[in-house]
Design goal:
145 residues; mainly alpha; 6 helices
């Protein structure tokens, strides 16, 4: 049984409590409560995709490879710093000393869709400054439409 409830009202909180009361006690269950954070904005996503496209074209790479490189070299660090669960699983996979498995974990569990607006801003800034160091130029986020 897997349930996910985003609690935004007394009624939904009551529903979540009712579900918890009905959990059978014959085997252990995990109940996790986390604050939902605002995810990255659509404008941030469009701008990021634009940056990746420009950088990939400048460097002669395809967009997906460029995106993975930045996830692996920048976004992972943000997740390791901010997400205890991500950090624990990442470290477990990293300890296996299997680069293919680690790359698979990064590909499947490191996503801009899981970033907050603040994390995405930090990530975009890192990508932007790295691109500048490669002499790749494009508009600032504030000027992007």
């Amino acid at each position: 049984m897997k349930q996910r409830i985003i609690v935004t009202s007394v009624q939904l909180r009551t529903r979540a409590a009712t579900i918890c009361q009905q959990i059978p006690l014959d085997s252990p269950h995990i109940v996790t409560i986390v604050e939902q954070k605002e995810s990255r904005s659509d404008k941030q996503h469009r701008y990021y995709r634009h940056l990746i496209g420009v950088i990939a074209a400048e460097l002669g790479n395809d967009r997906d490879s460029q995106h993975f490189w930045y996830k692996q070299n920048m976004l992972v660090d943000i997740f390791l710093r901010d997400d205890d669960y991500y950090r624990a699983v990442y470290q477990g996979v990293a300890n296996m000393n299997d680069n293919k498995m680690l790359n698979y974990f990064i590909d499947q569990h490191t996503s801009t869709t899981k970033t907050s607006v603040k994390q995405m801003r930090e990530y975009i800034d890192q990508v932007y400054h790295h691109a500048l160091s490669l002499n790749v130029r494009f508009p600032l986020f504030e000027a992007y439409q």
